[in-house]
Design goal:
This protein has about 375 residues and is of the alpha/beta class. It is about 35% helix and about 15% strand. It has 12 helices and 11 strands. It has helices spanning about 10-15, 60-65, 75-90, 105-115, 130-135, 155-160, 180-190, 250-255, 265-275, 280-300, 325-330, 355-370; strands spanning about 45, 95-100, 120-125, 140-145, 165-170, 195-200, 225-230, 245, 315-320, 335, 345-350. A 7-stranded mixed sheet has the order 2-8-7-6-5-3-4, sandwiched between helices. Strands 1-10 form a two-stranded parallel sheet. Strands 9-11 form a two-stranded antiparallel sheet. Helix 2 (about 60-65) runs antiparallel to helix 9, helix 3 (about 75-90) packs parallel to helix 9 and helix 4 crosses helix 8. The longest helix has 24 residues, at about 280-300. It is globular, with a radius of gyration of 22 Å. The relative contact order is 0.16. It binds pyridoxal-5'-phosphate. Pyridoxal-5'-phosphate binds near residues 50, 173, 202, 230 and 238.
Amino acid sequence: MANAGVISRRGFARLLGVGVATAGLRPLGAARAVSLRPRAPEGAVRLSSNENPYGPSPAALAAIREACSLAWRYPDEAADLLLADLAKHHGVPAECLLLGAGSSEILKLAASACLDGGKKLAMADPSFEALGNYARVRGAEVVKVPLDATFAHDLPALAAASAGLVYLCNPNNPTASLTPKAKVRAFLEAQPATTAVLVDEAYHHYVDSADYESVVPLVQAHPNLIVARTFSKIYGMAGLRLGYAIAQPAVIKKLAEQGAWDSVNVLALAAARASVNDAAYAAEGKKRNAALRAEVVGAVSALGFKVIPSQANFIMIDAKKPVVPIITALKDRGVLVGRLFPALPQHLRVTIGTPEQMHRFLEAFSSAMG
Ligand code: PLP
């Protein structure tokens, strides 16, 4: 009789009746997370994913260390504590909030909850692609609407799509541009109850234009509005994976039904809580980003290239020629920048990193373009 304790992988495969057919499978350890992001070679400057190189605040790091002692527990109480703080922060009941493993999970839940029965998704082009991808996988038609001449969402065209779900990314990734607050308000007013609107505010904290407002306060008046927020950007927690939705309780329930139980973890929850309660860290990050962004835009302009006015932690440069070879040339010089966005094939998206990183980018850019 075989001793289960010493059974080999091959023996186990035979027991399952698959013989050596598994030989061609990748070893489990090589499995990769699904993402569009390039992998950063050793020593490369990573300005490709709009991450915040300063990372979590000191208070968040201290909270993570403390929360390690809770790693053995499911995240129930830690989630309740964060939800209570977020409810206070936004002035909404906790029933209007749903946590996710990054705002990506919120986008995925929206695709699952809002696109049944042949409903369409309408979204800008270019915009952050994730929701479009989730919708397509569900078999939903995705209607892409080009940004207008000011790089704002073309709201009349999005409305004309008669979609089950409209995605507004404000500020928009990859253009870092805004869709003006009055137009967003009017758009929300005009949507029928059958159209859900997801406003993605991932870059909310970086905005300083008076033409922008968060739509969180409008949730109370709009049963079809979902707002997505993330801890990945200004709070520097992209690797910890935490985001959330704000919507009316009935919508939150519909979204939650589509989710996995316990997709958030106690370390991220503790860090998020410390971050929400540390307004000074976000304010400092915003100021630092704006100052360095202005310097980089100045340097890029001096080289003869226009930049779309940015309200985020990245910029979109008009490279005046196809961008893919430029992306490769920068990579060869140790600098990773954003991917190709086919609707703007001559624009290069660059994250604002640290002063040293931006120095390396400017050197590489000037040499690659020269
Ligand atoms: N929304 C926008 C507009 C983004 O740019 C990103 C990431 O870059 C995300 C959502 C997803 O962020 P996360 O899942 O880390 O919260």
